[in-house]
Amino acid sequence: MPRVPSRLEVRPARRAGFRRPIGALLLAAALGALAAGAAAAAPLAPEAPPAASPPAPGGQAPDLAEAPAHPLAPLAELAAEVERRGLPAALPDGLAQSGTWRSVAVEGATCGRGAPYTFYLNESAAANAGIVILLDGGGACLKEGPAPAGTTGIARSLHCMDFENFEDPLMNDSLFTGLLASIIVPQVLPIFSRGPENPLRDDHFVALPYCTGDVFAGTMRQAYDYDPSEARFDVVHRGHLNVLGVLAWLYRNYPEDRPVLLTGLSAGGFGAIYNFPDVIERWPRSTLLPDSGIAPPIDDSLLAREGARVAARWGADTLIPYYCKAADCLSSSYRLLAAHAAQYDGSPADWRPFGLLQGQQDGTLTAYLETTACSYQQGLRRGRGEARPENLRAYLPATDKHVFSAINPLAGETPFVSRRGLRFLDWFMQLASAAAPSDLPADAIDPWLPCNPTFLPLGLVGGAR
Known about the structure:
disordered C terminus
């Protein structure tokens, strides 16, 4: 690998404000004319905090039969609406656009079932521009063989023979290239806007599809046959190798020391945590801010039970850095995130900021981890009670919402507001722009949702803070 800069040069903090309304009225102008009922103006001030979904009754696990929603589903909905109505002859002033996106092939990289792998790039014209790297989500296949008859939803997708995202269904050429992409992508992903309100507007934007079923952690070079019959269902879990291919391309083209933001949605949030050491090795001014990619320390979760065996099959056990000493660094992404932050808290390594962006009772991750909403929440509290580096700041709203960075403007969504009245996007941008400890946002933790300790694993009762 080419030599990377060793000295941290602090760049002045970028402006944290990000209060452009991205609501139904703006989209109505962009699309020509939507129904009047859907064209209510987005407020200039933060909207009233949305009510958090209640925890599962009695702390029981959510229904695994519910179909998993892809974190970028709003992209497809918005693209379909634009196609139905057509683009206006002239786009309105103030409409957020992201400029031109293009696909970049990565030599030797493939999806889990052999399809070629490409990533998407939106280059900045600014000198010495930073880089924003986003890893897409889409579940994980953790179980062998086909799903049992009658299994549906998340429970079905956990079986690799029934995993549906071995080609990314939404982060692809149809939605991430051409004029359409320059319009719809920043509406759904505001961090990819070139608008003046975005403090990241001058950075290179990089989007990595997800198609290996391994949360970007696999290092396999040979196929694994998941079919227990005489037929074959070969999968190569090489998500980490694909990331390395993308990073190699980026470093060849943008080698100088520059600020880098590494983030990801859902499975991509896990992937951001696993791949952070390879990013900061190349660009020492890197920030890690995963969105909804936290598996807390929960003694009886699916990852606690099966994580070591699955990681060994994927080759993911090689990704754990020497400074993560906890026995469950593989099964708890919170442990690994906290270990990264402790390593880069000014001693022994140079200071860098880290973020924890996670719903208190994330309904999707609760289902994937085969645990209860209350156990998930108590796992978060337990993890923070055991390791809370000063440079790791948390946004933990009282909700079961999964993924905050992608919004659905057609459904009238605007950036999430916590019960304390803090917009996640303002908190996100302040942390992403922090160049020194004094720039960090404060923790933003809502009052914890109620839980009945009767339904908690014994290992969590009394141990959570």
